[in-house]
Amino acid sequence: MDHYEKESRLPGRLLGIDLGAKTIGLAVSDPGGTIASSAGVINRKGLEHDMRRIAKMIKEREISGIILGLPLHLSGGESEGSRRSHQFKKILEEKLGLPVILVDESLSTARAEEVLLEADLSRKKRKKVIDGLAAQVILQSYLDEQKQ
């Protein structure tokens, strides 16, 4: 069962984030909150750089809320990555002033990898797009859950 914070559905266009140590995968929803699309990757170069890039996307795409992946163990327990996501959530809320909802991202990268393998992409090409696609999987799982 997926873990979603108990918050009301966020209206408008949403930004999905897959937080990694070296990259941040991004995805955006349509304004109606039905479909998530990959929006690329930020190569991490420090917190200020990362925040500027995310803030730019928020302004350009008129984002109203953020869905941030929360890496949990398969047992559902928190991981070291979970701690980083909780910290990043606080930073996003303080610096960008938007609501942030944490969503279980268990297996999102594995699902993204499966899609890319089915598309028969080379390892080099998969590496370039995997984090953006993982963000898309995270955001789409939130959108699908909200429909129910």
How would you describe this protein?
Mean pLDDT is 83; it is low at 1-6. The protein starts with 12 loop residues before the first strand and ends with a helix. It has a single domain, classed as Nucleotidyltransferase, domain 5, CATH 3.30.420. It has 148 residues and is α/β, with parallel strands linked by helices. The chain has helices at 47-61, 80-96, 108-118, 123-147; strands at 13-19, 23-29, 36-43, 63-70, 100-104.
Q: What is the alpha-carbon Rg in Å?
A: 14 Å
- State the CATH topology: Nucleotidyltransferase, domain 5
The strands making up the biggest β-sheet line up spatially as 3-2-1-4-5
Instruction: Tell me which CATH architecture applies here.
Output: 2-Layer Sandwich
Features:
single chain; disordered N terminus; Nucleotidyltransferase, domain 5; 148 residues; globular; 4 helices; five-stranded mixed β-sheet; 5 strands; 24% strand; alpha/beta
Brief write-up:
This protein is an alpha/beta fold. The protein contains 4 helices and 5 strands, in the order E-E-E-H-E-H-E-H-H.
Helix and strand topology:
Elements (H helix, E strand, L loop, with lengths): L12 E7 L3 E7 L6 E8 L3 H15 L1 E8 L9 H17 L3 E5 L3 H11 L4 H25 L1
Parallel strand pairs: 1-4, 4-5
Antiparallel strand pairs: 1-2, 2-3
Helix pairs in contact: 3-4
